[in-house]
Amino acid sequence: MKKTLFWLTAFSIAMGYLETSVVVYLRVILYPEGFEFPLKPISQDLVTTELWREAATILMLVGAGVMAGKNAIQRFAYFLYCFAIWDIFYYVFLKLLLDWPASFLTWDVLFLLPVTWTGPVLTPIIISSLMILMTAELIYLSETVKDVKVSARNWTVMISGALVVIVAFCWDYGAYILKHHSLGKLWSLTDDELFDVSINYIPQSFNWVLFLFGILMILLSMILIWRKNSPSLK
């Protein structure tokens, strides 16, 4: 296990640097005076490339987890671990190379699928720390109990918590878009029309209440998994 964790850590840190290097190039090209909102207009080809790059990144992290794990629980846990280490070191390298972000509360674009996710840098770090904690729990239980049981209720609580967190990330951007277009009209907009609105977006406020509620739901799922499987509680 130590060897597996060593190489997964090395792989994820390397991926973090690779991700950072892409952002460094983009910022030199698009934001020579420093990154800030609103986002600069970019070509549709570049948008498409970025979307596929993000999808490819997730696929690589999933692949690492699948290859490292001995069963479904370990594969899921190792995927979480790789994602967390990758994300944390992405910001570590951004700070080292660009001296950015200025603080943990600096806003960043976190993801682009299926819509733009934004939030303070602190929020993905909290999520990554939670992923590492969940990895430790699942790997410990899988090595101790062997056959870890995760009930449908556990999965429901965990996935629901993750969805609530995602909604929190999309909340401010979604509110901005709905100020300009009704929900009914939103589905009829062309990509160009939606893009014209989105390039003027400047983050205003993060929904911390919703975010922390999602975190608590995920923590609850971890407690339920521990109570169901821990040898000390049997």
Description of the structure:
The chain is mainly alpha-helical and 234 residues long. It has one domain. The chain has eight helices and two strands, in the order H-H-H-E-E-H-H-H-H-H. Strands 1-2 form a two-stranded antiparallel sheet. Helix 1 packs across helix 3, helix 2 crosses helix 3 and helix 5 runs antiparallel to helix 8. The longest helix is centred in the N-terminal third of the chain and has 29 residues.
Any idea what the shape is?
globular
Number of self-contained structural domains: 1
| Uncertain runs | none
* Mean of pLDDT: 88
Classification by helices and strands: mainly alpha
What distance lies between the first and last C-alpha atoms, to the nearest angstrom?
25 Å
Write down how many β-strands occur, each being a DSSP E stretch of 2 or more residues: 2
Instruction: Give helix and strand order, one letter per element, not per position.
Output: HHHEEHHHHH
Helix proportion range: over 70%
For the CA atoms, what is the radius of gyration? 19 Å
Largest sheet: 2 strands, antiparallel
* Total of DSSP H or I helical runs spanning 4+ residues: 8
Report the portion of residues in β strands. under 5%
Question: Going across the major beta sheet, what is the strand order?
Answer: 1-2
Question: Keyphrases for this structure?
Answer:
234 residues, mainly alpha, two-stranded antiparallel ribbon, 8 helices
Q: Quick summary of this structure?
A:
The protein has helices spanning 2-30, 44-68, 72-98, 122-144, 152-180, 183-186, 191-198, 208-229; strands at 107-111, 117-120. It is mostly helical and 234 residues long.
